[in-house]
Structure formats: C-alpha cells, structure tokens
Molybdopterin molybdenumtransferase
Amino acid sequence: MSTAAPRATGQDHLWSVDEHLEDILTTVRPLEPIELNLLDAQGCVLVDDITVPVSLPPFDNSSMDGYAVRVADVAGASEEFPAVLDVIGDVAAGQAGLLQVGPGQAARIMTGAPLPPGAEAVVPVEWTDGGLGEGPVAAMRARSLAPEAAGGQVRVHRPAEARAHVRAKGSDVQAGDRALDAGTILGPPQIALLAAIGRGTVRVRPRPRVVVMSTGSELVQPDEELAAGQIYDSNSFALTAAARDAGAIAYRVGAVADDAETLRTAIEDQLVRADLMVTTGGVSVGAYDVVKEALAHVADEDEPGSGVEFRRLAMQPGKPQGFGSIGPDHTPLLALPGNPVSSYVSFELFVRPAIRTLMGLTDVHRPTTRATLSADRPLTSPKGRRQFLRGRYADGAVTPVGGAGSHLVAALARADALIVVPEDVESVAPGADVEVVLLG
Amino acid sequence: MSTAAPRATGQDHLWSVDEHLEDILTTVRPLEPIELNLLDAQGCVLVDDITVPVSLPPFDNSSMDGYAVRVADVAGASEEFPAVLDVIGDVAAGQAGLLQVGPGQAARIMTGAPLPPGAEAVVPVEWTDGGLGEGPVAAMRARSLAPEAAGGQVRVHRPAEARAHVRAKGSDVQAGDRALDAGTILGPPQIALLAAIGRGTVRVRPRPRVVVMSTGSELVQPDEELAAGQIYDSNSFALTAAARDAGAIAYRVGAVADDAETLRTAIEDQLVRADLMVTTGGVSVGAYDVVKEALAHVADEDEPGSGVEFRRLAMQPGKPQGFGSIGPDHTPLLALPGNPVSSYVSFELFVRPAIRTLMGLTDVHRPTTRATLSADRPLTSPKGRRQFLRGRYADGAVTPVGGAGSHLVAALARADALIVVPEDVESVAPGADVEVVLLG
C-alpha cells in the first residue's frame, strides 16, 4: 500500500444514493468463472450456453411396467378373448440388447427399460393377467420372489396402438438443442437437467468470498462481560448473515480496535480470502475514525483510480460511506458507518447489489413496491436527504416500526421493509403512497 | 429391521394428495432443539422467548462526533459570539469514567462514547471551530495526527438543549423486555439483535440432515460413459439441491442398483446421519421395484405404526408413493417415484413440507396464487386425479411448458410454477382461472 493522488471528486461533494450506487456497480466486476461440481454450483450463474450432447431419452423406452408386444399380436384382445403370448424374459431398466420380440411373443418390461427390437408397443401390467392365468392383476410379482414370471405365458386383455406407452428417443430434448442459456441461475430443476444430460461439472461465476470486519474499541464479543462504556459487537454478525443471505461465502472477523496500524494489518491479512471487504465504523468525522484514517490515503500508485474514497451521502441513516479498492488484486472494499441500523441499511443498499454483481447476476436489487403509509402521524424527513425508515409491509400497506434513530436494533428486528422518503420530501402524511423496499 | 403387521389402511385405498400430506405432517415432528452459535443458527427457528438482559444502549452516549458540554455554558452561543470552553480531553467509544465536565469545560466526544459526568448535551463538531480558532470545521483532526486537539480551547457556535445528541440508556430496548418470541426465524436483523444483547449462542431447532438416494440399475453418474439402456442419474442431484433450498443439510448418495439387499444395506448405512431419508424409484408395480420390496415389510415390531407403507395417490405425476419410518430412531422416509418430473413434483408437495416441519416452521408450504391460463388449447387431465403441470407464471397469467410426460426434464428447467388441475376437472379452457403453486 502506498499513497496516491486523491480522486477527482472532492471531499465536499455530497453524493446522492444513486451516484454512490452507480459508482459501486460500474466498478465491481463479475468474478472470473470457474468449473464447479454440479451441486457446488447451486445458486450460481452459468457462464456458457449449454448444448445437449445426447438426446433424452437416449433410446425408446417404456413408460409403464408391463409387456412389450407386437401390435398385431394384441389386436382385438379383451378380457374374454385375451391374446396369449409367450413371455421370453424380462427387460429391466438398465438392460439392453438381450431380447428380440418375435410374433406371438412378449417381453416383460419395466418403466424406463429400452423397448426391445421387434416390439412396437407396451401394454401395462394392469391390462394383463401378469402370467397368473387368473384375470387382471394390479402389479407384477417381484423378480426375486417369483423368477418364473419372466417366462411362461401372459394373457393380454386389451389391444395397444403402435408406440403406446413408449417414450420416444429424443422426446425430452434432442442432441444439439440448447439446454440452458448463459446467464441462467442454477436452481434444482436446472441442476436436474444438467445431470440428466451428463454434465457433472459446469462453468459458473463462483460465490464471492466476503470478509466482514467491524471496528470499534468499544465492541465486545457476545457472551463476554461488558465493562463501562462498552457494547456488544452486532454488526459483524448481522452483515455476515446478510452476506450469506445474498449468496456470498462470508467470513466474520471479530471487532478490530480503533488503531489505524492494527486495522491496516488486519485488513491486509484478510485480503487473501476476500473477493470483497466490508468494514463497519470509523468512517465519520471523529478523531478516532480509523477506517478513514487507515484507508483514505492507501492506494496503488500504478493504478489510477485505486484507493478508498470517503464520502458524505445525501441519505439517512448512512451519511458517511467509503468505497474503493485495496491490495494487489484491487479488492473492492465498502466501508460502512458503525451504527447498527446505518450499517444494515447501507448493506442492503450497496453491499448486497455489489455481491450480486460479483456473482454475475443482472437482477441485483431488492424488489420494491408502492404501499399506503399506515401511521398515527406524519413521517418527517430532513430536506435533501433520502431517508430509509424501517417498516412492516403487508397487503399493500406499510407501518413504520421504531423511530429514525440509527441505534434502534430492536425495531430493525421487527421490520421486513424499508420505507423510502425521497430527498425533496420533508413530511409524509398517513395514507400517502410511499415507495417500499421489501427485505424478503 | 423385522417384519410387522401391515397398517390398517389397505393397499387398495387410493389416497388423495391431501390425505397423504396430512399423514406426513402429523407423523413428522420438529427436531429436538440444540444450542448453536449465532451464525450457525441463521435460518433456524428460535425455541425460547428471548428476554433482554441489559438495556440498550447500556449507558447514555453521544450520537455525534462533537463536544460534551453543560447547557448553561453554551446558552446563547453563536458564530459571532462563541462560547469558549476548555477542552479537558477526549472520550472515545469504549472509554468511561476518566473525565468529569465542570463549568466552562468541554470533553471532545466520539459517536457512541459514554456521556461523561457533568455534561448535559453534545454539540456536533460542525457547530464548533474544532479547537482551531478559525470558524466552523467539517470534521475533527485525527487523534493520531493532532493529539493536541484533545486539549486547548474550543469555540462553540450554537447552543444545545439538555440531552441534545444524547442517546438515552435503554432507548432501544430495556432490560426485561421481550427481544424475540419463540418461533421467530433468525434472519440477519434478528441475529443483529441477539448479538447486540450479548447472546453468542441460541437454542433453535437445527437444520434437518436429509439423505437423498436414487435407485435404479440403469443410472449412471454424470460425466461417465452411457452404455446401451442407461441414462444419467439426475434425481439425486435435483433433490439434494431442492433439500438445501428448503433449508436442510443434504447428503447425496449416488444411485443404488435395483437389488433389495444392497438397498437395505445402503439405507441402514445412511441412517446414522439422517433426520429424513428420501429415495427415488422402485415404488411402482414392476418386478424390479426394490424400494418397495426392501421396505414394505420392514418395521419395528415393538412400535405399532412404524414401517414404510406404499400407496397409490390420486395424482399425476406421482401416483406411487411410499411413506413411513425406519431404523432404531424411526427416521421418517419418503420413497418417491423415479421419473424425474414425478420425483421433483413429489418433493415439492411432500418432502419440502416435511423438511420445514422438522425445522419447526409453521409455514411449510410453497405460496399459491390464482392465475389465468394462457394456452393455445385446453389442458386435459385424467378424471379423479389431481394433476400438476409445469408452467411459467408472470403478471397473473400462467403458461404451460412442455407436456404432461413425467420424463420431461428440459421443460421442468424452464418452469417456475405448477398448474394445479383438481380431481374433478378433466379439461381447462384457455383463459380459465387456475390454481398455481409458485416454485420461488
């Protein structure tokens, strides 16, 4: 790390939420693709179009447990006048090439087993006597208990058309078809298809590794004793959980004390496992705001634009924010404010979209909706700042929970939405229509 | 495992989807709670009500970087006629008990730091000269660069009311308040609150361990060579992914051949790590349906009602189903049919709710909605069976993808919804109102 010239934008510029977000989203690039085992790629974004290498099913096969027959042999068959056929053996799933069905013959066949040569249709076992000579049966006898049922004779009670109960080769997908498009998110059904066409690995953008570090000499690990002036560290827990929720592999680093050198070392130590660094605290105007102190003048001289810039944003909570990149790999870093609600709201607005951009997703934002404000009195908001209040959303209405204070963690835990009050609005009356971010 | 009497319900009973589901949901019980580290409990259900042990914040503290002052000392202050106070030192976050603010004095104070005795309010640094004697400043100088700023004099340009910029002890939550109710699902904001009140561990119902095993001698592992009559195993991949998606810790067991003894051994080997067993294939009426063969007569004689029962369900796809419990711990087992679409739909309808019941969730089902059928021709459905067709849902309309065939994996990968055709409906016209299960 070394000192570089400050960026073009000055310290006095008050950034809008949208400007800050745009800076992040145009700077952060999707991670390089890697080849992953299918189940490790769950939730990841496919990089290449996938073409079907082999038709599905790969061969004509039976869709029922029954008998593979020639159509002419069962024409006109009924329970009163069954077609009597010689059973030449079993075709189980996974078998092939053993039997040939000739005139007057049938092969007992299982669901998914290949239609043997000579056979033209399958009659379900329920349309036969199952070889027992005593009227229709509901099921075959198990091979292991009654091996003789693979021979003898079977009475067929109904005719079958050509191809009846036969799944044609390629009826699901044909070799050469497009199975999945690049950009597809791999959920269970997409994983099913990839496995079905024989793909055991797949090239995707990996889940980003996110290191979450809280800063503050006042922070104590939960379950330890609080001394005077101390509070428990909650940000590193909350944001690690939120990063996982966003799709990342997240590593929580315990609270780091307010000392610039300690912090710099801690960050450098973590860079090796980070695709994205997130810090909380130490970004404001105080004399001990060491994140700012440690990172504001850190950049790679050879890389214009690298380094971390600290900004004032026209928003509440979350006015002070830092963003930039650090280390030899120019790892993106978001430095969030330290108040629990400020850091959580900042995560939702800025870090979550950054994580989802790293994953290669195009839909990186939380869904928003319009809702009717349900409140006893007007919401007030400072002019010129976009305010994000915590709320509960249900059935088209949103109710604020807790106040605007950025230390109100208990209210945050009851919220499932953020109520957005635009920059040019200072008061919102009950019953008004407001924008709501759904926290999902 | 030993032989037991069959259950009361006979083999001939045709079960409705609802009867089968009810049997599963009344049999499967939530897992016993365990104490987990906070971040390991993400997504889990809280077992106990959680009470706040210590008020938050635990002490009066500053909401701004600024100066802790006595109200009388700054009364009437302005930029023209500033109040000039002696700075007696810094109060950083995490410090306490070092300073006492007397008349004519101020302590430089950081956000989150405890209000020192004697002080009644905080004036933000932006309302002062920051000790520089040159008009209002935007920020404090870093302690490490300008230690002298913790002393000297500060000019305050504005008065402050009592308690201005002070967060009162207990203004977030009070000791004794209910923090979270039993039954709460622990997302990031709830984890934030638990950490903030000092809880490092929490008693929750753990994620269920689900073992997924596909059966079939025709199944080949992806990336291997297909011989004649073979297909790739996709069910074990799809359902492992789906189980993880539902909240489980899922273990995939590769395809097991159609041999009852091999299968029994494979299942017994897995029981040690299973809270729920899921198999696919081998449950129908064929001569090689070994899941049925291996499990239909397996039960603990001492436990009435244990054992696995195989049923015909009035649904399509997914007619043959097995459900029961096995092994010394009566581990629940769902035996799903082997066709990929059948097993996937069965998972959504029966296994996912079972997993979520094990987790202690009360909302165990996928959301459903009504939609307008967008199709070129009517959907047909067999009488007396509830049909689940794959579809794509958007903006109140649902469009079928692929046909009804239970082997159509490619169509499944393009679907995001199931179209439900009730038992008593045989045809649904385009434009009709249908029930839709949203696969999320």
Summary: Confidence is low (pLDDT under 50) at residues 1-9 of chain B. Chain B has four domains: 14-31+207-358, 35-57+172-205, 61-167, 368-438. Chain B touches chain A through 114 residues (CB under 8 Å). Residues 222 and 371 of chain B are 37 Å apart (CA to CA).
